[in-house]
Batch of 4 targets.
Target 1
Amino acid sequence: MKLDILAIGAHPDDVELGCGATIAKEVANSKIIGIIDLTQGELGTRGTAETRKVEAKKAAEILKVAFRQNMGFADGFFVNDAQHQLALIKMVRKYRPEIVLCNAIDDRHIDHGKGSKLVSDVCFLSGLSKIETTDDKGNVQAVWRPKVVYHYIQWKNLRPDIVVDVSGFMETKMKAVLAYETQFYSDKSKEPETPISSKNFTDSVVYRARDLGRLIGVEAGEGFNVERYPAVNSLFDLK
């Protein structure tokens, strides 16, 4: 399967929170998109790896992505080493995405920054011909390097380098986010409180998008940080 976009998150729900509306918009534009979660979120205070798996599947169905896969890396303890890089290089070479979306370059949760750097390094290494990997059938994989890597924004209010107009797609995003019933606000929940379980946090996801939208003159926006200068053919390509 050749992907237009591969979205990667350290935990199930990272992708939905960071770029769910962008994914929903590009799916509506007939782009082929897949999601890879690095861990099962098993160290989360609320819920379990099993409930997160069910919730992640439901969220993926809401976003209508082509597939969702979990790497099974250790929540909180995965590192950016050869073992983890090679496992993820296989996925990049298997799906050959044009664009990769990944965790924030800096954030409150340590896995987000680690995941960001791991994915960025993997996207470079995947294009080196002297790194040999094989697929599930033992066939040598062709090298592949995505054209660009964009980092979505998470807990911290990082200044975006680009903002995507996601007007009309926030409802789908929030349905996907709230598919994680164990993680986010519910007046019926008996789970312990966490930084993301308050109503304020859920509301902040919406008002951040509205604020970014305000700043670019549209209804809603999602921000990304880039690894190289964005290029346009004409100044008139910019809104």
Target 2
Amino acid sequence: MKTDTIHNKMNLYYTCITAAPFNALIVLDPEGKLYYASLGENITNLKDILVKDFQHQKRVQLKPLSTLSNKSNTSITVDKFMQLLINPTVPQDIPVEIIFGTRLQRKVWQELMTIPVGEVSTYGEIATRLNLSGKHARVVGAGCGANRIAIVIPCHRAIGADKKLTGYRYGKDTKAHLLKQELGEKYSQICS
């Protein structure tokens, strides 16, 4: 992470990716590491959410990606994320830097990243793998809701014990679309 030594802030760069059926707003560093990815239809709303999400990140200075002089590394990440929007089954080898969340939420996100493309896990199964006892499926669900790196940290692959698509930070329709793309014909058998 590079910081501006005068202000002791890390410069991160944001850009919008327009795609169908939804758009994305991503934040990355000059080396191309992804710090943030939000999904939605309206770019203005995504920018408003970005400001709200970063308001407590005092060490971060957000700048438009267009202000970065050398975009060679960031272009690779932007292209890879655009490919994921179009086809979430492509290899997800995008480097990630997590700056949000509690220690438990970060554990949940790390566990989510072990779920392969084309598979799902219930919140309870994820809780069990994290050695969380009792009714900690809700803790996993809350961790998913706090995730700020869509698709790459695949919260959409977490489903309810009854195989229902429960809440998703970016909307249930977006979750259903991503899973239909990833699961193909298996979608109707796995998710109800």
Target 3
Amino acid sequence: MKATSLPLALGLVLGLGAAAHAATLDDVKAKGFLQCGANTGLPGFAAPDNAGNWTGFDVDYCRAVAAAIFGDPSKVKFTPLSAKERFTALQSGEVDVLIRNTTWTMSRDTSLGLKFAGVNYYDGQGFMVRKDLGVSSALELSGASICVQTGTTTELNLADYFRANKMDYNPVVFEKLDETNSAYDSGRCDALTTDASGLYATRLTMKSPGDHMVLPEIISKEPLGPVVRQGDDQWFNVVKWTHFALLDAEELGVTQANVEEMKTSDNPEIKRLLGVDGTFGQAIGLSNDWVVNIIKGVGNYGEIFERNIGTSSPLEIERGLNALWTDGGIQYGMPVR
């Protein structure tokens, strides 16, 4: 077989790399919709109603990516995934992106062939108990039975916490979130553990929400965010910069109501963000008004947060760490320039 010249070989490699580089975005555009992996049902974050209409914080993130690509936030389909199913579904290509209250960890970021595109919600694991259990601290749960979802960092953190505090416990393990919550509500265990945001959401679904309380301890760091497959930098950039655009828009005061008006702003940061100056959208395979489309479709980060899980929602969650860095939090959008 004739040897291939070095320039030709390099060209072939670079050509193949370029083809793989844009595969997911091209595939999404070709089929005409985004397939987004979501929770099977977590109020405030991702849940379908009886008619199959999805709402929630993570759902709006999926819609933001669809808006960035198509200029239409409705061009998305949702695949409900359990914690056990979620990574396999993404690895296999069943979904294009996973936006499902998933914790960024080293092993997930390095050994599963996946890549986290940012942190859209800073969370931490806690415990919920019935008020009549008579405890006010997680340190009083020695010997308790605790409902926990398997295949999650929650299960691992639970073991670490009890081991570190030299306490015994009885794990009551389920694969699906709704099974875990139902078991707790029916009295099969003394406590329920998951991310604190999830506890506040779950409490709303209990038979008697007022009978339950979330204990004060936060036992872990749970940075939650969108996940994509490794090896497709263009797609990674689309998802990552959609997240940053939502944060930058909030910081710059660009909202769903004023985005068209803000296109005439004299602020150079706003002009770059909204595609009036520069070709930043084209650089990642999108139109230059991609951020305008995002904000028109779903609003900025603060608007998404407030309507789904914020203090004016049924969950009544304070921004806390998820406030912008300018407001005492740690959410921070990278500059478009």
Target 4
Amino acid sequence: MQGLILQLTRAGFLLLLWLFVWAVLRTLRSDIYAASGIRPQPRPNRSSRASGLGLGSVRRGQKGAKYLVVTHGSLAGTRITLGAQPVLIGRADDSTLVLTDDYASTRHARLSQRGDDWYVEDLGSTNGTYLDRAKVTTAVRVPLGTPVRVGKTVIELRS
């Protein structure tokens, strides 16, 4: 009877060990390949056919950003109308843009308006905030159409 219990204990321990190894490999794989899933894809050509004007004309005619658009991630297609209030981004329920991303912190980043310009700042997140491909360390001005990456989510300011 004791031999059977010992064999079952060994088999259980071996199963737990393999589950742990599988979980570690799965986590490593998602970390390694995460960057390939969040790179912005080439933007479609915004020619005069689509808007009636060239992109340069549209940007010169508009002052400041009016919308925050999620371009990649689980919330792709989400559009938030910008006002005078800062936009808080993170996993917290009281954030303006609530992310369900494992790579986003509870309070990850903040977009705030200064005059006609919007600035992004990292709020001490674990994985950082990136403007285009540069890591944000202080409040940085966000030009229209420039991707801002928070975890696996990519957002842009649009007019």
